Amino acid sequence: MTSKVVDIKTLKARLNALPRDRFRIVFTNGCFDILHAGHIRYLAEAKNAGDYLIVGLNSDLSVRSIKGDKRPIIPQNQRAEVLAGLTSIDYIIFFDEPDPYNLISEILPDVLVKGGDWTESTIIGAEVVKKNGGQMLCVPFEYDTSTSRIIKRIVKLYGNNE
């Protein structure tokens, strides 16, 4: 596994070594099951909001709890490996819960990024970040490039044929 994939202890140590008054920490999260152009655009915009981009990656357990037993398509270590290849991402950290609230509360990013399909009032962890002086960024959502739509298109084109 790449050095971009870290546990919470390592991540906090690396962040604590930074002069936080000079660097903006950005956090986003997601399943990133089948990486597509919408993800790449989203992550690039998130990175532009600060100096270090941390991606909270839903573990396989977490993905199943929110998307159902047929997901994820790609196992967590492979999803992390693909994400680690992106220059926009500095750190990746797995979480098993359905949402990243605990992770956000520990990291306390300067900027919390979510897709435009979320409103600030529904962004998990927004109140913690704002209370700490941080801000929210909602990146426009690209409905035509979602993983769910890609999966539906594959099933429509190929059905159950293997």
Summarize the structure in words.
The protein has 162 residues and is an alpha/beta fold. It has one domain: HUPs (Rossmann fold, 3-Layer(aba) Sandwich), CATH 3.40.50.620. It contains seven helices and five strands. It has a five-stranded parallel sheet, with helices on both faces. Helix 6 (126-131) links the parallel strand 4 and strand 5. The chain starts with 7 loop residues before the first helix and ends with a helix.
- Adjacency order of strands in the biggest sheet: 3-2-1-4-5
Give me the CATH superfamily.
HUPs
CATH topology, by name, is Rossmann fold
Order of helices and strands: HEHEHHEHEHEH
Q: Mind summarizing the main beta sheet?
A: 5 strands, parallel
How many domains make up the 3D coordinates? 1
- The termini sit apart by 30 Å
Mean pLDDT: 93
Unreliable residue stretches: none
Q: How many helical elements?
A: 7
- CATH top level? Alpha Beta
| Secondary structure tally: strands | 5
Using the CA coordinates, give the radius of gyration. Answer: 16 Å
Overall spatial form: globular
The appropriate CATH architecture is 3-Layer(aba) Sandwich
* Helical/strand content category: alpha/beta
Could you list some keywords that capture this structure?
162 residues; alpha/beta; Rossmann fold; five-stranded parallel beta sheet; 7 helices; 17% strand; globular
